[in-house]
Specification:
alpha+beta, 4-stranded antiparallel beta sheet, 4 helices, 8 strands
Length: about 150
């Protein structure tokens, strides 16, 4: 199988994901990965994030994003892993990795996947600080990042 889509509560090992991408075949000349971690944007008062999703619906949305990337670039293996549940600052939250024949295509495809994931994947995020809890709205910058791909083939 060339695609691996995972939505899970458990932590992940980016090195193991890299190894899986690499074993996809000798035609890949580049492996590009991105690992997102929970960061504290609440001035050192973030206690954690809670991420919800709709099982099944979320995986289908991620599969659609991978399919769109495959129509644009010649890719080998592709892996997306997104965590849900309670996460603390500095925890792994998302991994996107692609194997491709050339580095430029790999970087573009990984960026595309992350941009579309941030805009189109049905995840809901609640932020807990020392003083409050609140649901986090999607950022305009995330929508704009995905929309810039509309003008590219």
């Amino acid at each position: 199988m060339n695609d691996s889509i995972r939505v899970q509560t458990e932590d992940f090992n980016p090195g193991e994901f890299h190894d899986w991408l690499k074993t996809g075949g000798a035609e890949a000349g580049a492996i590009v990965t991105f690992t997102g971690i929970v960061r504290d944007l609440a001035e050192n008062s973030l206690e954690g994030l809670y991420l919800e999703h709709y099982p099944g619906m979320t995986e289908r949305a991620l599969e659609k994003i991978v399919h769109q990337a495959r129509r644009r670039w010649g890719l080998g293996r592709v892996l997306i892993c997104h965590r849900v549940g309670w996460l603390r600052p500095n925890d792994n939250i998302v991994f996107v990795g692609v194997a491709s024949p050339h580095r430029a295509e790999g970087f573009e495809a990984a960026t595309f996947l992350m941009d579309y994931l941030k805009r189109d994947a049905p995840f809901w995020k609640k932020e807990r600080t020392r003083t409050s809890e609140q649901w986090v709205e999607q950022k305009a910058s995330d929508r704009a990042a995905a929309e810039r791909w509309q003008s590219k083939p």
